[in-house]
Design goal:
single chain, mainly beta, 1 helix, 1% helix, globular
Length: 305
């Protein structure tokens, strides 16, 4: 995604390039938090459809007097995050989910203050802050909200919230662990009874005492008992890492796990049991150099002549 960043979200376009670094698609207005291309089997044609999952952020007027923002002089603005699914061939939006239509403002755990004080459209209250979108086999979406510290399952049929994990209104009981301000929630496996997810747990917030170090996590949801167990945790390469934003978890083909540490300019690789294989730093701690996500893979680009 290209464009500009302001107050924690982006205003730009999602773009797609081939191996020769030539743009072959995109130019879809989007926020930088998610622009992911996936292939989904089309039962009618028997072929795979290319879909894009992406986020957008829009400021809209709302009465925020209950949250300390005067409802006068054109004051009272909130950020509405959207999760969208687009057919890349036709450029048709197949699904458009609005957080503001389904998640009450009271679930937000970051209050309107400072650069998100809600007084103007430029400084709208970002109560939800969508940080990732993933898709389940039946088309339902798994949406991560940093500012509610919640993972949502969204119905592909009507946009209703099927369940929540974490936050103020969790439908599941977390067994012996917690998380907050999470990023990059990805689906690793699903059965009729379980769902396995990976994500980066920032363990960082402004609404309660810090919960400890940031880490990568793999969890398993038991859909019958409504419980969640921690399958594996991947600790930082140095003690005391607490990443304010960003971060990613990538399960590699050999079973190892590659982690980008978000605001902290480090990457690390771990064995499946959590043991550190290596780590690397690419910027100074506290500097403006960092990576929202990080990936490991074979380079197969063809450099232009």
């Amino acid at each position: 995604t290209t464009g500009s960043i302001f107050n924690g979200y982006g205003d730009g376009n999602g773009q797609i390039y081939n191996q020769q670094f030539q743009q072959i698609g995109g130019e879809q207005p989007s926020d930088y938090h998610e622009f992911k291309v996936i292939q989904v089997n089309n039962a009618t044609s028997g072929k795979a459809d290319d879909l894009a999952l992406f986020t957008t952020y829009n400021a809209v007027r709302r009465d925020l007097s209950a949250f300390g923002v005067p409802n006068e002089n054109d004051q009272g603005w909130v950020t509405d995050c959207h999760a969208r699914v687009m057919d890349l061939r036709t450029r048709k939006i197949l699904f458009d989910w609005s957080a503001l239509d389904h998640v009450p403002l009271s679930e937000g755990q970051v209050k309107p203050t400072g650069a998100i004080n809600g007084f103007t459209s430029q400084f709208s209250w970002d109560y939800f802050h969508m940080s990732s979108i993933a898709r389940l086999g039946n088309g339902d979406l798994v949406v991560s909200s940093r500012h509610t510290s919640t993972i949502y399952r969204i119905s592909a049929k009507d946009g209703s919230i099927i369940w929540r994990v974490g936050g103020k209104s969790s439908d599941f009981r977390l067994q012996g662990f917690n998380f907050s301000s999470q990023h990059d929630v990805q689906v690793l496996g699903e059965t009729a009874k379980t769902l396995t997810l990976s994500f980066f747990d920032n363990a960082y917030n402004t609404f309660s005492p810090p919960q400890g170090e940031s880490s990568g996590k793999i969890i398993e949801l038991n859909l019958s008992t409504k419980t969640v167990r921690l399958v594996q945790q991947f600790n930082p390469p140095r003690a005391g890492f607490q990443s304010g934003d960003g971060g990613s978890v990538q399960v590699l083909p050999n079973g190892n796990v590659f982690i980008g540490w978000g605001r902290i300019p480090y990457v690390s690789e771990h064995e499946a049991d959590g043991r550190l294989v290596y780590s690397a730093r690419f910027g100074g701690i506290g500097s403006s150099i960092y990576s929202y996500r990080a990936f490991k893979g074979a380079y197969d680009g063809i450099n232009p002549s």
